[in-house]
Amino acid sequence: MASGQLSGEVAPLDGLLPADRLENLHDKPLSFYLHVPYCASRCGYCDFNTYTFNELGENHSLKWLDGVKQEIALAKKVLTTGGPKNGGIGVTPKISTIFVGGGTPTLLEAEDLVQAIAELKAAFGFEPNIEITTEANPDSVDLEKLQALRAGGFNRISFGMQSAVPSVLKVLERTHNPENVSKAVSMARTAGFEQINLDLIYGTPGESVEDLQTSINAVLALDVDHVSAYALIVEEGTRLARSISKNEIPHPDDDDMADKYLLLDKAFSENGFNWYEVSNWAKPNSDCQHNIHYWKSSNWWGIGPGAHSHVNGVRWWNEKLPRIWSQRLADGQSPANAREVLDSKTQGVEDIMLRMRLAEGIAVSKLDNKIVEQLVEDGLAQIQNENLVLNLTGRLLADRVIDSLTD
Ligand SMILES: C[S@@+](CC[C@H](N)C(=O)[O-])C[C@H]1O[C@@H](n2cnc3c(N)ncnc32)[C@H](O)[C@@H]1O
Ligand code: SF4
Fold this sequence. Notes:
This protein is an alpha/beta fold. The protein has two domains: 7-342, pyruvate-formate lyase- activating enzyme; 346-406, no CATH class. 38% of the residues lie in helices and 22% in strands.
């Protein structure tokens, strides 16, 4: 738990937030994250809150939508309660962004996802340029489903590509055939999606530089407007971590990861993409607004099993098990298990941790001058428009830079 928190406490059953945190909701954009906790099979590296239907033993999709509707009603009640300054009547901003993630959202019927979006619109209203993204597995979409999603308001889609090389996908235990990515992208275009992201993972044991180049070429050939490339993280408790500890496969290598990051950045920046966050590159005007709101500590409500939320320095997280999450909502209770109410100092530290990852950086005035000078002298960052911004070497060492600014 970070230092300086006012409390780390059991979340109240009614889900209400401290009244002072409900002032000024209009100062920041409002976003929603919807978590779909289902996957056809579990990838060996993944520790997200997701369950296969075998693990669950029954079809939960209808219960997901029921729970989502109930949690939207709870969010509406909580966010319109209002702080003391406005006499207990809150006026919430309209929604700026929605992100449906998982798990594998596209394992659900398109109608369920579309109905969840319609419920949010009815409850809060939408800003005119709302961004509505869904994650999708290349194997769980067809043209009909993509058309239904597009017609239902989704205007951005993110496919989990990870790699274009079968042997790398095998180590990751991905089930999709690499050819399905180009089919999925082409169907998404036919369905009317203009904003398309591909997720890559780099540094998988056994992935050669040529393999990564093959994946990069495949991304570039698909002419998408956004790419996220994540260094493979070996998460405790996963099959990948077990295989590595038994020496069945080697641990990802830090120098190899750094070389691959440089390769990715060169390829994307030479082909019309700009980095706007350490792991994210986009064509002009195609940055993911939802993620930017997250990195700028805006307000977002996470709906679904295990989802995390943040409103004006209050962070809370939901019960992870889908069955208990839905039961709590059906009983009229908040599904939140615990929360942290952050004081302004801790919020300031978190703001530095998140904003420093962005290409626009953070105002030097919010930072320790001596450390800023040292980072510039060490060739890790530069000052641009009075903000401290990571340079390429600094991006490779982003965690270390951020530690030095927040210790
Ligand atoms: C949790 S998945 C959800 C989307 C979808 N189920 C999929 O896998 O494509 C979101 C993204 O997180 C990334 N991810 C998950 N676990 C990771 C890990 N251990 N290391 C690096 N990236 C990871 C993958 O790139 C994945 O596309
Ligand atoms: S499909 Fe996505 S969410 Fe599901 S196990 Fe694989 S990486 Fe995790």
